[in-house]
Amino acid sequence: MNTEINDDTAQRATSPIQLFIPQFESIYKVLEPLSWLVIRCACGLILAVHGWGKIAKGAEQVAPNFEKLGFTPALEVVYLLIFVEFFGGLCVACGLFTRFFAAAIAIEMGVIFFTQYLPNGFSWLNRGYEFVLLWGLVALAIAMKGGGAYSLDKKIGHEL
Q1: pLDDT mean over 114-139
Q2: Domain range spanning residue 44?
Q3: In Å, how far are 22, 34, 46, 79 from 84, measured between CA atoms?
Q4: What pTM was computed for the model?
């Protein structure tokens, strides 16, 4: 009986899903490979905007805010965040050194999840951890999968 269950589970896992509207199959075949590119670009570019904000204000102007939050040495932390958020975000969007920067982003989100947002609860309306958790998990998924088919990592044939 146990062998039958395992065989049935394996068969379902490898059999193709039947589409409700089979005429959409050709559209899905074109769009499916692009889905990871969309996820990567969304994560990377949204994060790069946060990094750009720190660049535009100047690290020296931003550092006192991070010191108030308990991050020391604050100026070095801001430079690290600029590197991870702006340059790392652009690299994730382009699929260059994708796993490295996505892992760095996931670590950053984990740190701020525990140190800044967890005590406030889930809802972002109360300065909660909702979005930090979301972006941390997206970055973690990107780190696990890598750049994918449409990435500079794939084009150069190497991953970091």
Answers
A1: 94
A2: 37-156
A3: 43, 25, 12, 9
A4: 0.84
